[in-house]
Amino acid sequence: MRHIAVSFALVLAVMSVTAASALAKPNVQLHLSGVLVTHSADGRETTTPIEKVTPKKGELYRYTVVASNVGTDPALKLVTRENIPNGTSFVAGSATKSAGVAIEYTLDGKMWSAQPLVTVTTPKGLVRRPADPSAYMAVRWIASKVAPKSALTFTYEVRVK
Amino acid sequence: MKLLRIFVALAVFASSVTVGVTTQSPQSVQAAQTAPNTTIQNTASATYTDANNVTYTTQSNTVTTLVGNAPTLTVTTNNGASAGTSTDAPGQVVTDTYTLTNTGNAAGNFQLTAAGVSGAGNDNASTSSVQYIYNATTYGTLALLNTALNSAAATAVNGTITVGVQYTLSASPANVPGTVTTALTGTITYPTVGGASTQTSPTANNTYSDTVQSDARLDLQKTSSQGGSAPYDITYTIKANDGGNFPAKALSAALNNALGFPNSLGCAIIVDKVPTYGGNSPVINGTPAITATAGTNGYPASGTTTAVYYTTNATGSAGWTTVKPGNPTFVAVFETVTSGTTCLNTNAGSSAGSVPAPAITLSFVVPQPSGPGSGNAGAYLNIANGIVGDNQPTEHILGPGIPNTTVDNAGGATTVTTAGEGFENVTATNGPSGASQITSDKAHQAAGILNGPTAVTYSLANLQTSAGWTGSYDGVVATNTADDFTEASLTPASFTSINSGTVPGTPNGNTYSSTATVNVANALYNNGNVDDSFTVVATAPAGGWTVQLYPDNAGHTGPGAAAYAGCTAAAASCTTTIALTSGQAIQYWAVYVSPNGQQAFVRKDASIVATSVADGAQTNTTHNEIYSGFIVLTKSVVVTSDGCPAGVTPPVGGVCPGGVLTYSVDYRNIAVPGNGTEVANPGLFLITKPGTLIVSEDGAAIGNTWAANTNGLNAPATDTPGTGGPWTSTFTTNTAASTAFTCTIGGAAFQLQAGWNGVVSFAVTIK
User: Fold this and answer.
1) Which of residues 82-121 of A touch B (CB under 8 A)?
2) Per-residue b/e over B536-566, b at no fewer than 16 CB within 10 Å?
3) How many A×B Cβ pairs under 8 Å?
4) ipTM computed for the complex
5) Is the entire prediction scored with pTM above 0.80?
């Protein structure tokens, strides 16, 4: 917890310096948070801040990234990237979608696609088919523009392996 | 941030990755779990541009969390996550193997919170026999097993251990088919690792439902058929099948060798005790046939051969050979197993005595039995048996009528030759243990009856012989067993038979002044091959005679106390039924009573007809020839010289003084002589007792006057034997001038037989 507190202080300091020196520029700031998502028997969802739990196999975690443009100019071609944390796997379909924002995934950190394909050699030869989402190593959201003083929120979920 | 996955890219297409090249279908691989104490960090990054197309990069805060111990396990069976199953035989040692898999995220140690035999059908298993097998070591209690598990090396993630829950089924289960259930419940515990504290998983469990089925069971069905015409051979067919729930296993070579079979793995599938009759084994016609089709009805598809074996050993416990002896006591099908251990696979649908789809069939042919009783039901008792192995850890043998017999693995001990069991089972009426492997057969039924004279000396053999004698009761009809006869004579008490006839051989007797009775012994012999009853009809001579039939008395000297049913009252005829076993001969008596007024010296024919009840065509008659006196004297005189002076004519038949008269006394047995085989048995015919036929002549006796009117015998009287002669008679006072003499015909030992005759002559001179 002390480590996290120190990091947070550093982020605040950077943000204040940036705000002071780039008033005529776009300035996008990212904030990441995570929660443990559980569901009761009747389907009701409960979330617990990730800082208060010890992950166990099979548990579902939801990460939320808030990209805020605190600058005075629009931020263009905003590409927000999230790696799937080590020890977890991406939950298919969990990345939030919003108008004007494209979602892409990568299996190797190089090639990005809305639906990555893999080529598998089978007894019938090479077959191309959609990759298992649990194999995604990162997800990114591509927004064409973020107006000043506005923010975009992206979420996705992972399951502890 | 490091990559989550490393892929082997063999070829890269646009927006695609080629993964692990394999010739197998893609398989899901259980993902490795995140180890405890692993830190999960997450940071977002972004790039963007401004209106001047200047690129900026930004990064979020980092979210960090620590992965803890997450112990989980699965308990699987031979059906995976579902309950396990097995099918086991009585007496079998059953081991239900459970697989415990560490499905959590760290290495840990398993513990069992519960395990053992439970559930319905426990009476089939001995719960005290439960033990646990882990890592090739057997533990008698759960506590000991847990101690071992606790001290064992931790099981890695996705690692497994196996635990066997072992128990022994009852050799004689109360419920077959029945069920025995075992269960196992376990946990796994992870030790503390860094910030991940020790954790114990929730319990996981599984069960086995073991079905207890009967072991291999050798079912046999034996049938027989007999030809409809001579020689009436009997074909035996024995069908064998494993009607149980497990394969019939081969017996060890040592055991087979001990039984006299080849020293090889295999089974004596069919062992047939060849039927005997009178203690004798018949020949087996030709070569017995074996029918067994590979892969059909449980007969193994390969790896077996069959052959016919024989032995002359009394119990079938030794001496087996493929060379057919003359009179084998046993015939068998031995199946040699050259591959595997199975003699017969299970083939449902059979039971003891009913094998509709046999794995192996043996058939052989023997002649029908012959001799007395061979036509009776069950004359041939044929027993089939066989032995196979069961599925017990210790070698056992199974067979109809053979209890689960344990033999030692060296094959040196077996109880199959215990009396009443196994090969030598000779139970008279029932197959062993109710199995219908016993077949009763008999010879083609051939009833027969002989009715005839009785023998002079009583014995079964003599009766059997005399009943079959041939004869002609009147000397005219054909000589055969239906016209054989017995002669008897009767005379009322104190009655003197007088012949008034003058022609020898043509007597004219006086008449009875009362009734007379005579008992005639006869023989009845069942010479057929089947026990039978006979209708016996006795008919008295015509003219007021009566007849009754009696059984023999204890001494065989006369009629018993009570007449046969149907013959209890004197009547002109009577009918009774006499039961005789095949080969049995009896003596019985016909009691005839002549009427008052019966003339002497008359032969009366009385028949007795015996007819088989089983076969009315089988009938035989005997005749009793009853004489009202059989020794007839006919006296005549001839004037040898009339003694009259010349010129004097004597009266007709008369003489003058000095005349000589010659008297002749014809004596003869008027009974019909024997013929056929009866000739050799003169005792059957009317015959004088030795030395008792004495012709007496007394010139002064009542009716005689020649003593007073003559000078006595001119010369000693003579006896001139006729038919049946010569013989030499003895005389007393037979001298010249004697007025009386006796002549013992033939001497003291002589018997005048039927048809024999002679003449005693003497001459006297009239004073």
Assistant:
1) 82-89, 107-109, 111-113, 115-121
2) bbbbbbeeebbbbbbbbeeeeeebeeebbeb
3) 193
4) 0.84
5) no
